[in-house]
Amino acid sequence: MFEAIGLKKEYKRDGAPFLAVNDVSISIGKGEFICVTGRSGSGKSTLLNILAGMSPPTSGEIVFQGRKYSSLKDRELSAIRGAKIGYIMQGMCVFSNFTVLQNVSMPHFFNKFHSDAEGRARFLLDQLGIERLARQYPPSLSGGEIRRVAIARALFNSPDLLIADEPTSDLDDETTKEIMRVFESIVGQGTSVLMVTHDAGAASFGSRRYVMDSGVLASAEKNQARGKPPVPLI
Amino acid sequence: MNAGPCLSFYDIAMSNQRQRPFRSTCLVALAAVLSFMLSGGAILAYGLAEGADNLSKRLGADIMIVPSGYESAVTGILLRSEPSAFYIDPDWIGKISSVDGVSVASPQFLVASLNAGCCSVPVQIVGYDPRTDFVIGPWIGTRAPSSIYGTDIVVGSAITAEVGGKLKFFEREYDVVARLDRTGMGFDATVFMTIDAARRAAGDFVRMGGHSAARADSISSIFVRVSEGRAVEDVMYNIQKKYGFGGSGIALVQTRRFVDSVASGISALIFFIVALESIIWVMAAFVLAIAFSLTVSERQREFGLLRSIGATKTKLAAIVMAESGIVSFYGAIIGTFLAGLTVLPFRIYIASVLKMPYAQAPIDRLALIFLASLLLSFAVGPVASLIPALQAGRSDVCSVIRGGEL
Fold first, then answer.
1. Contact B309/A107, CB-based, under 8 Å?
2. ipTM of the complex
3. Less packed terminus of chain B by CB within 10 Å, N or C?
4. How many other CB atoms are found less than 10 A from the CB of residue B98?
């Protein structure tokens, strides 16, 4: 369904070239739950942004459902992002000047897939147990509630691939488990999930696990088989 | 804002403006000041341009004869509503009428009034000869009497008196029998009566303790129309040849040259106004551009979020432009409304304070001027946000979403 081949992303750091993503290849099948762990600054978020089509790679190719990113215009990539990919960003990734309901239905402004946007948004909020917060503004919500709002928004257009960047950071264990159960449920419905996390407990939910180190992505199992020490998570 | 989930461009742009109330208020105020100045300047420039275009046509006479040294005073009366009084010997009417090439010579007698009951500013009293007049008569509207007598007066369009009413000058009542159409000249703040009545008014003035240099039979000026087919310069030469080039005590003012010099001054003033307004517009655009650019820089994460849910670069740019459009729209509305509130009721007063009675834009054109100013003021926002809007679309979300962390 989704394949990335030989991705590289180069930046300048102190005037010298610096590879934030170095020759990364990964494929994601339908209904897979893939977790990527790694140190801060290892290039995880950069990789997610490239995979979501928000930042072009310096080299390499991404093929999503048979379409090459390199051949698509911004409008087409945006349409894919709006329709096929749900993206949960790191941190406070909601619009504080809009209500929870408006936040969740915000994708409807860009891609009108549902005739009943409010019904779809309320359904998702109900599924995530925060329907009662529909008219609240994000500053009055807890961290866990905000993550749920972000998840609901990412699911608004029923994406085929859900990309989540540290969805459980700063959350307690119980809330983390709740969020992971939501992801498992999503995966159970056939949506693929690619999650970056620092949390070993959260990473254990993945059906495949990868470790990213200095821009290089490697299978966690392969790392262990080669006798490499596990990469510290924090 | 729409409380439901289906957001519009307006909802999103307006919400972002409300989130930064102080900044938004300042930007709206800036746009309002710009709009106010554009409207005010446009009205003044338009009035001036129209005044320059029509001045020659309005004046009617080819040559004006005034006492030597009073050439600028007649300019003040005609253009700036500055009451004045000066006198020449009445024999000059006969002398000028007899010059070859003179078709009509019509005398006037001036009395400078203090504030009258009708007006908040001093008015000029002009005595004219209805039998020979060709300057005042054409401006009297449809209810023009065949002639005026005794205490009849004709008032300029800016004098607040009704036809059929009365006005009092130097403790004598006069009957308002007609009103001039708007001339855009000093005539608008002038009261006209017969020369005899004006001389009597001057006498009243002296009896009340005023000082007047007028003799009982004085006149102040003579308006001359040359015979058809005769060159004005030739007729002026004839007058000067017959009565001497110097020492006669009179000065000849050629209307066209006088108008040309005024028109030239007006053109320079209009150029200055337009240049000033252009500079103000560009400066406002720069200030707004800086403000929007800063805003876009601090909202990179928000734009990254919007991109992540399917926003194209074009839509991000459109959101930024919609926000700037809202700022300039409200600013333009407020500024134009305030300009209207200021200009409409006080336009005659403002023109008189500026000593430019001809700078009053006709009321039927004000709507057009306000609309043009509104559009220009509104345009400044979207124009100023063009580059910031492109910045919003161009931002590399990779580096901004995580605040620099890779």
1. yes
2. 0.86
3. N
4. 10
